[in-house]
Amino acid sequence: MKIITFLSDFGTKDGYVSQMKGVALEITDARLVDITHDIAPHNILEGAFTLRSTAPYFPTGTVHVAVVDPGVGTERRGILITTSKHILIGPDNGLLMPTAHLLGDFIVYDISNEKYMLNPISTTFHGRDIFTPVAAHITNDVPFEKIGNRIDDFVDLDFGQGEIRENAATGKVIYIDRFGNAITNITGDVLSNGLTYNKNIMVFIGEKCIELPFVKSYGFVKKREMLATIGSSNFLEIGINQGNAAKKLSIKEEDKVEILFA
After folding, report:
1. Fewer Cβ within 10 Å of end Cβ, the chain: N or C?
2. What is the DSSP letter of 15?
3. CATH code at position 35
4. Residue 98 within any structural domain of the chain
5. 147 & 169 share domain
6. Which H or E run includes 214?
7. What pLDDT tens digit does each residue of the chain (262 aa) get?
8. In terms of pTM, does the model score above 0.90?
9. Do residue 108 and residue 190 come from a single domain?
10. The domain containing residue 112 runs over which residues?
């Protein structure tokens, strides 16, 4: 089954998403799936995290079109990335790279062959005029080499991985979800060697220092109580059971995080 997914900051009030789907349907009979179009406007980091968290759950061969593109119309390139399982298409601004790193064995191509784009090409809507038609042609087995040339000077974005030393771990906030949970780049794999559930840890996040219980899930603390846990993306997250930790603690993306545990 051929699948194209779409992720953007376009919202659904306007017709932008439908225009992309209309273009795709003129070219391919692939199934079209929305990941989300509610990425905060221009927030490349948020889009990158959401794509990274979602793409691995799609079948092998899925083509993902991601468009969070404040540089549209400038000299920034469009790129196509092949990975061990999926194909990623979007702007060369780092948006696709955390997913490419996660999936592995990736090769990056520039998108330069106008044969596989719409004509004319808008300077403000490459999602419709470049990325979507390229994705549709790829599902029709157009070779990657016909889309453009292999490149190695792409814009990289890697969330990295938190580090652990003795009885401490360090990292940063990489995403804040709609519940106000602050998700870090400290993975459960990093913590598994030094930390067990149902212990308290000291958390330094932004300019705050708090003691929190490290638990399996939100329901293991009382309502409105703060906690630390390993979320569904296998990252340490700081949250409040039925509350908003980011708002309460004024946490922002890129805030540094350090945890201390016995």
Report:
1. N
2. S
3. 3.40.50.10790
4. yes
5. no
6. strand 208-214
7. 899 999 999 999 999 999 999 999 999 999 999 999 999 999 999 999 999 999 999 999 999 999 999 999 899 999 999 999 999 999 999 999 999 999 999 999 999 999 999 999 999 999 999 999 999 999 999 999 999 999 999 999 988 888 888 888 999 999 999 999 999 999 988 787 778 888 999 999 988 899 999 999 999 999 999 999 999 999 999 999 999 999 999 999 999 999 998 6
8. yes
9. no
10. 3-151
